[in-house]
Amino acid sequence: MVPPDPNPTAKRKANDSNLLPPTTSKRMKKESRSDASKRKRHVGEEQPGGLIIVRAPAPRPLSPENVPRPSPRLPSPNSQPLPRTPQIHSLLAWSAEQAMSRMAEATSSSAKPLKPPSKSSTSRGTGPPPLDDRKKLILKNVQEDFIRMLAEQKIDISASSRASKGETSEGEAPNEQNVKNRAREVTFQQHINRAQAESDAWSRVDQFYHQYEVISNADLEKRRQALNPPSSAKAKGKQRETLQEPLDDWSWLLPREGDLSDEFKEQVDLELIKQIMSDPPEPLNREMEDLQFKIDSLFSYVNSAVHTTDMTEAELDHRFSLLSLALSARSHSLPPPSSSSSTSLSSHLPLTRGASHPPGESPRDILRALSRIDKERPPGKIGDAARRAVREVQRVQEGGSGGVGERRLTGLAIGVGATPRKVPGTPRRRDR
């Protein structure tokens, strides 16, 4: 931290002499004491506007040897340097006073004969051009106004510009683009607010009609349940569906006139709609509904009959094919049992050779009649089981007696691929 200057007055005087240009310092050296006394007369002069301007006497320039040097001492806590802005104000006021003093001296000395200007000064162009009385008065007024504005702090001499703080001077015109942007911002904000209000209104309308739809659906469901009581689960598929219309002919489904807008009322005639919906149903329409029900019933009956016929035909074909195979197997004679093996399975089968049938009731005649009928039947009505039976009979007929041998039960030697069977033992006492 830099300590404050113990003697700021001497330092300020030295700085003031250094700030002056060299031409001014040379001129000040030539001033006499009489000029200094004349300058003192201007101290306390009242200017227009009631402002008293105190004009300090110009400091006399000193040589570097005569400049007093402050003796080092401890800094006083009460002595503090002025801020940067007041220093500049003081310097500007002093400079303006000096300029006015020089102008007054030039005016007072204009009555005396002046020396002709030297060629060197004329060639350099350092001297100001001569002014007439009117221009001198204007210059004096400008200087006085400048000093007064400095005293009233109307002139901004701060280092930082006011534009960075968002401030503008009185005579500065605003930026046209900024003005347009502010106007657009206001307009767009109004549009956004209006759109938001419209969105809120539509949300309220949507919520109202959604609630109205829920209530209406609940009322319709209650009325439908009251008109059509639920039937039992068993009788549900056996009953005819009946639609009972309400007594008011669906007029209760029409919207109320208070719910419709004026534009919709002009385009739609509710009275005509009520008249059309309230007309009694025609008898022909009822008969058409009965006819449709009867046609559906007949179609279901025919479909059930066809399905039953197909299943019966398939079952009969299967049974008759089994009968045909059994009859073909029993019609041929079986070989006698082998005497070498008493454990042959054929010995336990009943003999069918001696089976006698009454004349005209032979199973062969029955099968022949059935086969004759099957031949006359169209091929599309012959089932798969019947076809298999016919092929089996043809194979047996073509093979002759050897064909039956494939299905004949023959005995084998003991221990050669035969399944061990229990030999019948001695009969018991209770079986005798």
UniProtKB/TrEMBL annotation:
<dbReference type="Pfam" id="PF08202">
    <property type="entry name" value="MIS13"/>
</dbReference>
<feature type="compositionally biased region" description="Polar residues">
    <location>
        <begin position="16"/>
        <end position="25"/>
    </location>
</feature>
<protein>
    <submittedName>
        <fullName>Uncharacterized protein</fullName>
    </submittedName>
</protein>
<dbReference type="InterPro" id="IPR013218">
    <property type="entry name" value="Dsn1/Mis13"/>
</dbReference>
<feature type="region of interest" description="Disordered">
    <location>
        <begin position="1"/>
        <end position="137"/>
    </location>
</feature>
<feature type="compositionally biased region" description="Pro residues">
    <location>
        <begin position="58"/>
        <end position="84"/>
    </location>
</feature>
<feature type="region of interest" description="Disordered">
    <location>
        <begin position="153"/>
        <end position="186"/>
    </location>
</feature>
<dbReference type="GO" id="GO:0007059">
    <property type="term" value="P:chromosome segregation"/>
</dbReference>
<dbReference type="GO" id="GO:0000444">
    <property type="term" value="C:MIS12/MIND type complex"/>
</dbReference>
<feature type="region of interest" description="Disordered">
    <location>
        <begin position="330"/>
        <end position="432"/>
    </location>
</feature>
<feature type="compositionally biased region" description="Low complexity">
    <location>
        <begin position="330"/>
        <end position="353"/>
    </location>
</feature>
<dbReference type="GO" id="GO:0051301">
    <property type="term" value="P:cell division"/>
</dbReference>
<feature type="compositionally biased region" description="Basic and acidic residues">
    <location>
        <begin position="362"/>
        <end position="395"/>
    </location>
</feature>
<feature type="compositionally biased region" description="Low complexity">
    <location>
        <begin position="106"/>
        <end position="123"/>
    </location>
</feature>
